[in-house]
């Protein structure tokens, strides 16, 4: 344990010497106090060892002292594991917050405009470089020949170069992945992650995208059951793929008649699931399709064996003893058996980080004509 403690001490010491610590000053005081405690405990352990070797202490007393110090070392190790996460301020000329399609295409444009190495960082809570998100509801779900990364990194959607993680390294762009920003201060031009890492910028591009609207947002009873899926990120698609394998050729209810509903419905039918689609509108994709165009697609889906129920909504979901969804109750009284439920009822812009700091319009951030 002492070797592990020494390793933590060395790591944290190097970080403190490299740059000023986190701007959260209470952490700075705690870290220095922790380092002092480490030195004290090491000296005390050395003293106990020397006393034991010279037999100045009884065996019982020695065992008691050793047990006490082991407990103190464990406590220091636990705190040290937190302090080892210390990240110093990182400064960039440009920061893109969000790692979706917009971030990838923006990075390509920056490079075209003569971006210098080290000027740009992309911060994303996802664990992978920017990719073409529409793939998730289509080829990613295929039973054979399914699309997988790196096959659909941006910018293949526009017929452009596929930007692999190595591309960002080569261009001097820092990809900061698996990092969720918890606070954005546009006045001080500072972003703070959920783990306390701090990033300063001169120019910020907000590319946070949107979050899915969930059945819980409507107060639907039982919406927290297992095997209810929403599709936004690659991790969501991975979970759905696992469920498809586990519930092979089962029953799926698709809630929603938009892009996600239609595309996932088709993919699930290709996977030989019994598919039922439910949506409240008089026809699918009403904001895009005319009644006649929608009728063509609905007939095509019906011919493929997909059942469509229009003009009603899900009001409750039942689960079995394992907490897995087993049925969807509709407002018109019908009950649909389900092994899997996929929900695609829209999305809302992710603007919470910037509340009170930007002008908002129609649920999103207002921009000028050049944005």
TrEMBL record:
Q: From the UniProt record, which GO molecular function terms apply?
A: monodehydroascorbate reductase (NADH) activity
Q: Which UniProt keywords apply?
A: FAD, Flavoprotein, NAD, NADP, Oxidoreductase, Redox-active center
Q: Is NADP given among the entry's keywords?
A: yes
Name the EC number(s). Answer: 1.6.5.4
Q: Where is the FAD/NAD(P)-binding domain?
A: 92-368
Its required cofactor(s), as named, are: FAD
Task: List the catalytic activities from the record.
Answer: 2 monodehydro-L-ascorbate radical + NADH + H(+) = 2 L-ascorbate + NAD(+)
User: What is the enzyme's class at the highest EC level?
Assistant: oxidoreductase
Q: Name one GO cellular component term.
A: cytoplasm
- Family membership: Belongs to the FAD-dependent oxidoreductase family.
Q: What is this protein called?
A: monodehydroascorbate reductase (NADH)
